[in-house]
């Protein structure tokens, strides 16, 4: 089994349920061994079907795969953490997860699985003014319950997503089982050098979601096509110099700076292209030029989308 998180994973955010089983199978067939899932993506049962088919066909064994999932906001209370984890395990058809992450440092009121699953952000969509319903659950209590999952053998490692440096310092002051990884948005428009350095100082692996930046958000009207980093001259020049696509250059930058990355695509040829990053190396000047594109541009910002989409202003970054 992988003893550390593979550098390139396949992300299942926004993968349509009706396509998720085939895409999971195709991703494994293309060579992906790191699959990044979450309860909130609403497709874990289908991803599990694809995994089971790939194992049955002899493409991989369970031990060849690194499967990550995430605890949703409505399961933060200690008495519900295991329930959330076991639901993901059941949907994925697994006995254990390689990594289980706290999806957001946002606690929302519990919603029973048989009432609505995935619970999503809004507590009662039928309310006259649908909104999020915050829960009074300290993050240290959630983490304590996450640690219990390790002891029960349900997960091999635990970690966090979308934490800032203050929350990370706080977590490291009380964790009995330290976090294995921090997953954050990171791309050339949001380089996050201080947070990544801090995570490494604490011994954490760092996974970058949305490693190509705006591409994941155009269809959600959270970014425009003009926001694409792939058209930047320094990226285009590096692509020409190395005989690679602009996307491969940006993904290589992510891997070469020491983060694991989780790109997503529905096209088998693009799946293979996104894995083909290890027969070239960017120069120090190319790395620096791409890093210099940093705008602090965060596309996935709860301080923006929770108010616009879910009727509640809930920032987690200053």
What does this structure look like?
The protein has 318 residues and is α/β, with parallel strands linked by helices. The chain has a single domain (10-310), classed as NADP-dependent oxidoreductase domain (TIM Barrel, Alpha-Beta Barrel), CATH 3.20.20.100. Helices cover 38% and strands 10% of the residues. It is built from eleven helices and eight strands. Strands 1-2-3-4-5-6-7-8 form an eight-stranded parallel sheet. Helix 5 (165-174) links the parallel strand 5 and strand 6. Helix 1 (17-30) packs parallel to helix 2, helix 1 (17-30) packs across helix 9 (268-275) and helix 3 crosses helix 4. The mean pLDDT is 96.
Descriptive terms for the model:
10% strand; alpha/beta; globular; eight-stranded parallel β-sheet; TIM Barrel; single chain; 318 residues
CATH superfamily: NADP-dependent oxidoreductase domain
Q: What's the structural domain tally?
A: 1
Number of helices: 11
What class would the helix/strand composition place it in?
alpha/beta
Could you please say which CATH topology applies here? TIM Barrel
Q: How much of the residues is beta strand, in percent?
A: 5-15%
SSE order, one letter for each helix or strand: EHEHEHEHEHEHEHHEHHH
Distance between the termini: 39 Å
Stretches with pLDDT under 50, minimum 5 residues:
none
- Gyration radius, to the nearest Å? 19 Å
